Automatic annotation (TrEMBL):
One of its GO terms (molecular function) is structural constituent of ribosome. Residues 11-106 form the Large ribosomal subunit protein mL46 N-terminal domain. This is Large ribosomal subunit protein mL46 N-terminal domain-containing protein. Residues 36-90 form a coiled coil. Keywords: Coiled coil. GO terms for cellular component: mitochondrial large ribosomal subunit. The keyword Protein biosynthesis does not apply. Pfam families: MRP-L46. The keyword Cell membrane does not apply.
Length: 258
């Protein structure tokens, strides 16, 4: 009888998922960008011919002036019937009302609220920036342990492909429309265990393989709060301040490239 020996790795192999929430609205322009846009708009206005919308706006203005004169003279407005139905001015007022509603809903007209006066557990905060999900993880322990801030991760099973482990991380620990990008990890982080821990686990440490993932539009994400007692949606700047370990941050820096 012949036996096949399967060599076990001296490392714990982990699959980690970096879940990105793309910007919901376009970022606000800087002061220089606003000045440049104003100059370009003025140049374009001076050099361009009138388009259909601008021609109609001029016709609307003439009709409105005629209407005002007829009303002032107490005359019948029947001669303008069919000409003043929906003016561009009415359309612009409707658009302005919708813009005001959106600004109030997403608070992107209030710089202070955009910069952080929103619950960090709300994936809709900082609507003009890309966010990532960071967590404190228990790894199934019941002794009160919590990891430092990091990305969600899960241990691979024997013979399980890394991509499948990443999908299991999303499926078992998170609920929501999350799409993993690509079959290969974007980076790996090596963590060496302290000697007592290495001796107890008979492992040199862990190797964490990172996958990028995108949170679907118009969807909320629900986490297993037993496994993740704390979580937050953070920007790239907040990530650097919150997540400890320069080696860990360096391992995932490519995930923040725009």
């Amino acid at each position: 009888m012949r036996f096949t020996h399967v060599a076990r790795s001296s490392w714990d192999i982990m699959a980690s998922v970096i879940i990105h929430r793309p910007p919901i609205v376009a970022p606000q322009m800087t002061a220089i960008e606003k000045r440049y846009a104003a100059v370009q708009s003025q140049i374009e206005k001076e050099n361009s011919l009138l388009n259909d919308y601008e021609i109609k706006s001029k016709k609307d203005q003439i009709l409105l002036e005629r209407k005002a004169k007829l009303e002032a003279a107490g005359r019948d407005l029947s001669e303008l019937e069919g000409e003043l139905e929906v003016t561009n001015q009415m359309r612009e007022q409707e658009w302005q009302n919708k813009a005001t509603q959106l600004a109030k809903r997403y608070k992107f007209d209030d710089a202070e609220k955009i910069e952080g006066d929103v619950d960090e557990k709300d994936e809709k905060r900082l609507a003009d920036k890309e966010l990532v999900l960071v967590v404190k993880q228990r790894y199934g322990r019941e002794d009160g342990y919590q990891s430092p801030w990091q990305f969600p991760e899960i241990s691979t099973r024997q013979g399980e492909p890394l991509r499948q482990s990443a999908e299991r991380c999303v499926g078992e620990l998170l609920m929501g429309d999350v799409s993993i990008q690509g079959n290969a990890p974007i980076s790996v982080f090596t963590l060496r265990y302290p000697k007592p821990m290495a001796d107890a686990k008979k492992k040199s440490g862990s190797k964490v393989f990172f996958y990028n993932a995108i949170l679907g539009a118009k969807t909320a994400i629900k986490l297993n709060t037993t496994e993740f007692p704390e979580y937050a949606w953070v920007s790239a700047e907040e990530f650097v301040k919150r997540v400890p370990g320069t080696d860990y941050r360096s391992a995932v820096r490519t995930s923040f490239l725009q």
